């Protein structure tokens, strides 16, 4: 299905995302998450990211390149987001972090629902919050956190042949992960996994 043929229908997406436990899951089983938690020393940190679908005539997905100066995940491609503060919902965290990182007005995203949580190898349990964004966007990123904000074509996301499965030894283990094609950035890891799940959801639209 091409991006042009896909109608990003808010009602359909909201209904589809209503039960994250029934959505396609990139990870083979919850046991994989438990193993990741054990490798991270058993320390699990709650986090959330905003997954913004930008409603251009040819829709895109908003991503960020993290600053190389950060202590965690420096220089990696990610969605706007971060650690949840006490008392916050994932939606509140995602909107707050998007405002802090790229200057996104928290009143602009039309929140639709959540993708399944994902536990990273560094011990972050991330809840992806999906939203629609209508352009134009007046984004002003914080250079202390983000090198740049950029948009990924939805048409490429919907191509089943686009993501590549790779394997690499890391800390004595052979680790498999997804990589999405891009002419300037290396999109892999948790972000790539979330994109795989999102693509599965969107391709499921009748």
From TrEMBL:
Residues 40-174 form the Nudix hydrolase domain. Its cofactor is Mn(2+); Mg(2+). Pfam families: NUDIX. SUPFAM superfamilies: Nudix. The keyword Metal-binding applies. CDD domains: NUDIX_CoAse_Nudt7 (cd03426). InterPro entries: CoAse (IPR045121), Nudix_hydrolase (IPR020476), NUDIX_hydrolase-like_dom_sf (IPR015797), NUDIX_hydrolase_CS (IPR020084), NUDIX_hydrolase_dom (IPR000086), NUDIX_hydrolase_NudL_CS (IPR000059). Keywords: Hydrolase, Magnesium, Manganese, Metal-binding. PANTHER family: MITOCHONDRIAL COENZYME A DIPHOSPHATASE NUDT8, NUDIX HYDROLASE. Belongs to the Nudix hydrolase family. PCD1 subfamily. This is Nudix hydrolase domain-containing protein.
């Amino acid at each position: 299905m091409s991006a042009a043929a896909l109608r990003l229908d808010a009602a359909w997406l909201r209904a589809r995302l209503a039960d994250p436990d029934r959505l396609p899951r990139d990870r083979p089983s919850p046991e994989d998450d438990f193993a990741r938690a054990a490798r991270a020393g058993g320390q699990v940190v709650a986090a959330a990211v905003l997954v913004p679908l930008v409603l251009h005539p040819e829709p895109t997905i908003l991503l960020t390149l993290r600053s190389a100066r950060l202590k965690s995940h420096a220089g990696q491609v990610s969605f706007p987001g971060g650690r949840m503060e006490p008392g916050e919902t994932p939606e509140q965290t995602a909107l707050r972090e998007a405002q802090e990182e790229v200057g996104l007005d928290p009143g602009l995203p039309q929140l639709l629902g959540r993708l399944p949580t994902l536990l990273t190898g560094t011990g972050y349990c991330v809840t992806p919050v999906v939203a629609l964004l209508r352009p134009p966007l007046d984004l002003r990123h914080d250079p202390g956190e983000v090198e740049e904000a950029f948009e990924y074509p939805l048409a490429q996301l919907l191509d089943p042949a686009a993501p590549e499965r790779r394997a690499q030894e890391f800390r004595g283990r052979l680790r498999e992960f997804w990589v999405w094609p891009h002419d300037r950035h290396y999109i892999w890891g948790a972000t790539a996994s979330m994109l795989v799940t999102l693509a599965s959801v969107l391709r499921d639209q009748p």
